[in-house]
Every structure is written in structure tokens, then in C-alpha cells.
Amino acid sequence: MSESDIRSRAEKIKRAVGRLTEIIENILAHTRATSGAMVLDVHDFDLNGMVRRVCDYHHDEHPSHPFEVAIDPLPDRYKGDPLLLEQVFIIVLSNAIKYSPVDCPIRIAGDKGDGAIAISVRDQGIGVLAEDLPHLTQPFFRGRNAKHMPGTGLGLSLASHILDLHGGSLRVESREGQGTTVSIILPTVQTFNAGGGI
Length: 198
Ligand SMILES: Nc1ncnc2c1ncn2[C@@H]1O[C@H](COP(=O)(O)OP(=O)(O)OP(=O)(O)O)[C@@H](O)[C@H]1O
Ligand SMILES: [Mg+2]
Prior knowledge:
The chain has about 200 residues and is of the alpha+beta class. The protein has helices at about 5-35, 45-60, 80-100, 155-165; strands at about 45, 65-70, 80, 105-110, 115-125, 170-175, 180-185. Helix 2 runs parallel beside helix 3 (about 80-100).
């Protein structure tokens, strides 16, 4: 085999291992969350920096998706579980990448109001059928127009559990064929849910 054959096969193996790892991690985290065993490790962290770092990493991995990042209003000090909130953002951003064609921009915006912070991810992809919209956070639910793409249907369910433990929520606006905006809503002043185990 030539060096470039070996390189491209190694890349394929790396991607396949990455996908498997993601599936296993999602299933484990989902089981922890739904069995009440998810424990929040809460401390102050740089929310703005986390969003920027995840955007940079994903843009490096998927350079053909243009990213527009406008997150200045997001605070650089926020109290929450940094790893779990990072997982929420990765779930939402990965969906935008997976369900939209390359070359279509993905816009990541941050907003801070009186009582809430919003991190929204807007894509111009396949969108969601109106009748599927209410079910997106059910475990294992997959939209009818998404079934030909790889996935387990656990991402948004896990994301909404994690946000619930932080006193936050997930908002999805979408039209089939026209794109989707998913917003991660977090309280500016946190009231951690008792189920959080802290
Ligand atoms: N940005 C998006 N555009 C279009 N459909 C979306 C988007 N995000 C989520 N969906 C729909 O919501 C469903 C649930 O999403 P979720 O992330 O929970 O699972 P998944 O992407 O199918 O699989 P995985 O568990 O691997 O993330 C998807 O199957 C898809 O139908
Ligand atoms: Mg997903």
C-alpha cells in the first residue's frame, strides 16, 4: 500500500472509533442521567471560552462548514458543570453539522438577558417535520427525514436532562427543508435542581 492509502485508511479507522466512542459515551451518560446517578460537579468556569474552544475544534474537524460565531455577550464566569454543559453544546453543534449540507453556514450566537443566557446554533439544513418537533428530546427518537443518517437518538434527550439539572432548557425552532435553530437556555442565576445530586 502507498503511504497515502495507509493514511486514508487510518483516517477512516479514526473516524469510526470516534463515532463508536461517541455512541458509547452517550449511552452511558444517558443511563446515568435517567437513573438519577448523574452528579453535577459545579464550579465557576469560562462559558464564553468553552463555546469558542468547541467551535474552533469542530471547525478544524469540519472545515467545509463555514461557522459564524457571535458570542461576545456570553459571560466568562458562569457557575455550572463545565464538562456536562460542554457536552450539551457539542450535541447541539454536532447535530447542526450532521443535518446540514457542507458549505451552508452554521451560526453560533450568544445572548444574555435579565434572567437568562441563550446559546443558539442555527443551521440551514434538512430541518424537522412539524409532527416530529414535539418528540425530539424523547430517548431514541429520530426524525423521519433523519433516519438515513447515523445516530442513536439519544443526544437531545441527554442534553435536555443536563439542562434540567442546571435549571435550564432546550428550545427548538425548525421547518422541514429550511433549517433549524436550537437554543440552549440557562438561568443567569442558577437554582440547581435537587435531582442534580450536589
Ligand atoms: N440541527 C438539526 N437539524 C435537523 N434535525 C435535527 C437537528 N437536530 C436534531 N434533529 C432531529 O432530532 C432528532 C434527535 O436528535 P438527537 O441528537 O437526539 O439524535 P441523533 O442525532 O439522531 O443521534 P445521536 O444520539 O447520535 O445524536 C434527530 O434524529 C433529528 O431528526
Ligand atoms: Mg444528535
